[in-house]
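Margin note from the TA: students keep mixing up input and output lines. Inputs are the sequences; the output is the structure of the whole complex. Example:
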Amino acid sequence: MAIFTVHVIIENKPGISDPEGETILNDLVLKGTSKTISKITTAKMLKFTIKEKDKKNAEIKIKKICDELRLYNPVVSKIEIDVFN
Amino acid sequence: MSLEPQELSYLKSKIGREPSSTELQIVAAEWSEHCSYKSSKKHLKMLPMTGPLVISEKGYDSGVLDVGGGYVITAHIESHNHPSAIEPYGGAATGVGGVIRDILSAGTRPIAIFDGLRFGNIEKDKHARWLFKNAVSGIADYGNCLGIPTIGGEVEFDDCYSNYALVDVAALGFGKKENLIKNHANKGDLLILMGGPTGRDGIGGSQFASDLLESEDRSAVQIPDPFIEKLIIEAILEARNHKLINALKDLGGGGLSCAVSETADSLGIGIEMDVEKVHTKEKGMNPEEIMISESQERMLVITNKQKLKKLQVICKKYNIICSVIGRVTSGNKMHVKKGKKTFADISTEIVANAKLLDRPSKIPTYLKNIQKEKKIATIPNISKTLMKLFSSPNIASKIWIYSQFDHEVGIRTVIKPGQDASVLRLDNGKFLSAKIDGNPKHCFINPREGAIGCFEEACRNVICTGAKPIGMLDHLQFGNPQDPEIFWTFLETLKGLTDFANYFQIPCIGGKVSLYNETSKGPIKPTPLIGVLGLIEKNPQISQKVEPGDCLVIIGTTKNELGGSEYYEYIHKFIGGNCPKVDFSESKKNMKTVLELINKKYLKVVHDCAKGGLAIAASEICMTNQIGCNISLDKVPHKTQEPERVLFSESHSRYLLVLKQKNLSKVKSIMKKNKVSFGVIGKFSGKKIQFNKEKKSLADVSVDKAEKIWLNSLREMVLVG
């Protein structure tokens, strides 16, 4: 068994609007000097520390937790899971 | 998205040719149950909709009441049930946005929001808890971002809403009568689309709301953006002040299809529009998608060439995109083009007026035996029952919900949520009291009497603040109307509401019908939700602190009416029995008496008896004032004997009054003069809530313990499970 850090990024699916990201872009960033930026999207990240056999199992376990406990709504959001040693 | 075969042939016969695919989509959106009211429209006419205070104009999405001094209030109610059942946060939030734009479209500023929520059993069902928690935060986030207070509402949990949610939102607006938008348009006027870009989100929402919720339809999810909504509110109100708006319509269910066809039909004009001019979120959207998209935060404005410049300056100031998408033509057609190519050219009279249906109805078989009474075993210890009821999600304090809402922003809220009704201060020196009420448990047992009961309860609540009811909103929610038994319950509900409205001369100023509310276990219980607005000329009844020695008086008769009560359903798990019935003449007498006593300033607290009956209503007064009370059931005017029935029966037209001992004789003489049944049933003191009958103690609970359970159990249920 080893300790892994798992990052879960929850973000809107493509095509679903992101008012928070758009507001940051239009009302803050583009009003400043950074004119080269064309898109900002927001996301939420959960950081887990988990004891598991290997990376693969850690990912499966975390995915299961996210789905079962509805830590995100699969209708509007998608998740990305990254496992670190 | 499609039309029924007979609707398609009706359409063909009306236009005398094959419709184009864009026309088909436009008509399917507009002829959906959600937009056309095709099942209900014929019958809704029975409700009284006029009165001395009612102002009606062409094309209003909200009801308007004249409150004197040159001011008006507007009110509307909407639901967002199907979207909220899939994505509770976004569904509930966009529901708030939609109803607020209805208020705005009359040219008034939204000043308050109410929410009526229904979920499954949150004690057992994790999914129901998830829906509940997220719907509440959706409403809170949206309303709070807009700076509009959410000042009241009601919640009910019932197994019939398993895996489903009813999210109803009502909104109130306020403004000067002279600023009301008088919708009109002349040939050559311009059609402007203001607000957020049109995207693929929410494609086919209204059609989806009219289908059964069988599979998750992802594209019908709408994403809320309260920041744009706030800017739209301010921009529209500024444009209104400069008289730049000839006509105004909010884009809701059915998107541009409905907004354009309904505006054209109600104003008797034609509209020519180009979908290429519509600002979109993504490239490559086809004309059909643009016409039926239900992207949120959009308004349709009709103005003329002279005013356009000024309107564009205002939109620029608020950073809102406004696109000129078309113009008003003579005739009555909506002509949809993309560049030079025509995609639809069809009479708006046909689009906006679906063929109304006369659906069959039949008394449901389940009603045959449901009113049979249950013989209840006398419970040895009512204290325990009482404590259990305090923790019932339907009775427990809703503070966990309304503490998430900003209910004070705008500084109008004089009486805040948690009381019988909330009260807002108006600029003309008067006060507006409002409440929404529902009771699906009663309505299931007796759809007609249940609906009347909801109406009376909402009236009672505004009466408790010293207000005279002046208008009503109805939101009628049922299952599939193609089932004659369900349609029968709809008709009975409507007839009951009509009778009550006529008797009390309270006009219906707005409403909504939501059908096809079905879960995997079957249809929901009949769920009418009634909002009542009341006007207070001078002083609202603001509760004063109850002190030792104060008297508790009950007005109204307690009957053997435990059917649909929290006591039967939560304690005994029994659905059935006598549904409470409103006696119209008793109800009127009691209302008049309570208002007279309030106006004479004899009362410290006025509270209505509703869910949980006398036992809960009296305990609520004790808990909110942290004082005990010794209550004798012998003095309660009743038509039933068993103490449980006197304590927990949910008979209507009952009020609890708290007053100083020294006012008792004056209060008594007014009650006698008005011939109401009443009893002086208790005296406040100490720290215990006690109920006695014939000198025998029935229940004896500590106020502090009761309060702790009552205040915290809902929050614990949601957060801890």
